[in-house]
């Protein structure tokens, strides 16, 4: 199973859930796709076994072959290549490295050169969780190709947990696409509800079944619960607003390691999801 963990907004406890869930399962792999700010490794403290550069292929135009026909610019969905009367300009910060311009060029004037956008690190925690995470270079805007490359490490022989970036934009869609199920982490506040509604709509379009974990249960109001009931979205688990859990978090301690009863709850939740699927 591939299970992604998402939330419409940051700070709801998405990574806490991803890490604690991974630690509650056996034969598991955690892919941290929050490549702008990965932090699952802070809690899992893995021994890093492999670091490799993540590249995208940038077009490079041979002016001796180019006749400035403009076909490459017309084909590019991202306006990343512009053809002037005697010059072709490529904007690396817009280019997704899809290779379409090279394919459509009738004069074979485009070659491709790798450009590093970040790194991918792979390691294993003491609890035998395999962790793969991407780290986007500072100032780099191309998160989605790096997310795609992190996901290429998914091991079909394991339960794969994907920690998605916050929000509802392209990087989230890249992270959750292809998941069998998406766990949405929210908090019972008006902000939590607003952002939950956005991500639920995204998942409807992607046709990915979902359920909700309510973090900091006990604060706020009942509107999140009412919304889930109206939409027929199951509430999978409630994590109470508990000072002790917050303290463990601030110390970088996954709470399932300190309160093992939570391991049973997380593992039971995955069994239920598996049964439902
Ligand atoms: S499609 Fe090829 S020949 Fe035409 S402008 Fe682009 S690079 Fe030049
Ligand atoms: S590789 Fe793709 S995104 Fe980049 S310039 Fe060519 S068509 Fe545009």
TrEMBL record:
<feature type="domain" description="4Fe-4S ferredoxin-type">
    <location>
        <begin position="57"/>
        <end position="85"/>
    </location>
</feature>
<dbReference type="Pfam" id="PF01656">
    <property type="entry name" value="CbiA"/>
</dbReference>
<dbReference type="InterPro" id="IPR017900">
    <property type="entry name" value="4Fe4S_Fe_S_CS"/>
</dbReference>
<dbReference type="GO" id="GO:0016491">
    <property type="term" value="F:oxidoreductase activity"/>
</dbReference>
<dbReference type="InterPro" id="IPR027417">
    <property type="entry name" value="P-loop_NTPase"/>
</dbReference>
<dbReference type="InterPro" id="IPR002586">
    <property type="entry name" value="CobQ/CobB/MinD/ParA_Nub-bd_dom"/>
</dbReference>
<feature type="domain" description="4Fe-4S ferredoxin-type">
    <location>
        <begin position="86"/>
        <end position="115"/>
    </location>
</feature>
<protein>
    <recommendedName>
        <fullName>4Fe-4S ferredoxin-type domain-containing protein</fullName>
    </recommendedName>
</protein>
<dbReference type="Pfam" id="PF00037">
    <property type="entry name" value="Fer4"/>
</dbReference>
<dbReference type="InterPro" id="IPR017896">
    <property type="entry name" value="4Fe4S_Fe-S-bd"/>
</dbReference>
